[in-house]
Amino acid sequence: MADIDIPALKEILWHKMHGDLKSLVPWFTSHEQILCPVCFRPLRYDDFSLEHIIPRQAVADDPEEVRAAIPRNERSGMTLLCRKPLLINQKIMYNNGCNSWKGKYFDPLLKDVFKPGLWTRPFTSQHHVALFCAGYLGLVRKFGYQIALMPSGLLMRNQFFNPQKFVKEFPISSQVVFTGDATVEYSEDTRDFWSDPFRFSVGEGVAVTILRNLVLPIPISRDPTSPLARVLPYAPSRFKLRPDLRTAFD
Ligand SMILES: [Zn+2]
Q: Between 87 and 146, where is the model more confident?
């Protein structure tokens, strides 16, 4: 099934994210920029590209009836990530920003995780981190920038740039993934499983994130569904090429 028009989708996501960010951080009301949800650099529309949270190469493995019935973008879950060159550890340059960082470090592992059939391959800490970073992007997509702006958001953004293993601040209690049998067929009853890949259940200090047949307990500093003081001070970092790893909510 054809995806909806890609330029239109990018604009829809841009306006949604800009509106959400303006409501939290008034500085953005007079600036046609948004923060990249991972590196937090304030960037313009052209510096972003569409990101398939479950990568295209992973949903390409979905059963034929599923691919015929549900557009790829819906099965992936879409957001925006930056594509502007990114400086990490003083010297490594990622010419396409966070988008290409995710493509390099996480997308092949996510394809591996969602591969159909029995799980007979090694499940490494890199798989684990890739899933949590995908879950973080799903949380931002669902609940907006407040997820990124709280301390747990800073933790997840740091984790994104440490793809090999969990950072030491990552709670041990969250370093676990639960799994059930994956749905293998398509019918009206299983349509929900194949469409939006994310479901969330927010509890004390944790957003239980259901990503298809996987369950990830992602740490979270506050319940994003409860009311919030919505005016935060913000000034852009003077460093244009580095991730801005600061937080706004204590
Ligand atoms: Zn970025």
A: 146
